[in-house]
């Protein structure tokens, strides 16, 4: 047998033979069964399909369809990759890896546990269950065991990946409230609360592993996932203290409180970068240098912070949302780069500050921080921010409506905002905290405008009536001769008898003594007749 035939035979034994080659034309039954066991009975590619077309521009058509199909498959349930005999063979292979891993972790008189080999076998078993499909529980258990072994031996990257996969097997990455009935199987977590807590714990373990690798961005993102897992499927309208604390710790993992201009709005916990005798207002130079080293500078690291801002605004936690927005702005401005994303972060700060009902703070931050960036002065967001806080500060309802009108001059800046931020702009009030309007309730601004318009219309109508029915001018003699309506009462008072009134007054006994007239001797009664405190029984 020649060398070429030898190579073809080896290839056929490994991969089940490739059709269209000039080598071995006959296919043995063993090669076909091996290929089916490995790849699930995949049909060999034909010669025509293996050769790409070059002419006409149709060569890019299969690639385009592949990308579109991949995007369309994201929201659809994935089918098991193996079926039939191939799935049975893969499950048997997973059980073999599991037995080998358990054997590696056994201790004896002359042997000890080997987590290095066990982690490899546990990972292979989990991968086999993943390929087999419909075995989410077994895959999660062996991912967890593999992660524990990797943490013992210091394989941080593998441990972080296994913990993240285990957490996503409890609560999928892009799961929503509509997917509550399609969650992976987890009999040991019968309630949704336990499932949320376990998923959060796995994400926090992954964050610890990333921290050991000095991957600050991935560690912070895992902390954000841990915080969001605690709120999956929660129907309450208020955030729990535990979830809020996890979110604020994730925010500080991106930007330490020393570098956050809104650190004082943090509601839970204290900064890990401050000493016992330090404050946010007066940190030590050592703390500042340490904080600068721990700022996440990786690209797109601000996106988890933006997601936290939107999430916190939905729950009306404006103080924590402002804390997250300040961290995002500090992260984007750390490299002294003025970008469109930084402008959006600044306008988010202004909107959230106005939602808290503090236009003075919004104006102060706008003047001291935002406009110091030259590019922000020419941005659309700068005009929108100035129009909003000036209208709220001056209590000008018409200016506020003009600033946030979808058809006004700020329509482009509003269109660039997230839907949560646009809704929050519509809920801003001239006084007080922003809140959603109830059915049948009008806003302060619209009410004020309507009242003003009514007053103007009423005043204009009254003026027209006065102009139409204006009375003629009268002289002083005519006014003096006019009757007032009190003439009858004046006539009755003129007919009163003065002597009768004097007798009536004398008949009244006021019991006044000489002491009561301050010693003037007016002679109103005797001193003995004056009332004394002893004459009253106070019991």
TrEMBL record:
Residues forming coiled coils: 203-230
Subcellular location, in the record's words? Membrane
Q: Which Gene3D superfamilies match?
A: Tetratricopeptide repeat domain
For whether the record's keyword set contains Coiled coil, the answer is yes
* Keywords per UniProt: Coiled coil, ER-Golgi transport, Membrane, Protein transport, Transport
Q: In what ranges is there compositional bias, type Polar residues?
A: 47-63
The UniProt regions of compositional bias labelled Acidic residues, in chain numbering, are 525-539
List, alphabetically, the GO terms of the cellular component aspect.
SNARE complex; vacuolar membrane
User: Where is this chain compositionally biased, Low complexity type?
Assistant: 442-451
**UniProt topology in membrane:** Peripheral membrane protein
Q: Which GO terms describe its biological process?
A: intracellular protein transport; vesicle-mediated transport
| Principal localisation | membrane
Where are stretches of biased composition, namely Basic and acidic residues? 462-476
Q: Region Disordered: start and end of each range?
A: 1-85, 436-485, 510-539
Source taxon at top rank: Eukaryota
Gene Ontology molecular function, alphabetical:
soluble NSF attachment protein activity; syntaxin binding
Which Pfam families would you find in this protein's record?
SNAP
**Family, per entry:** Belongs to the SNAP family.
Q: What is this protein called?
A: Gamma-soluble NSF attachment protein
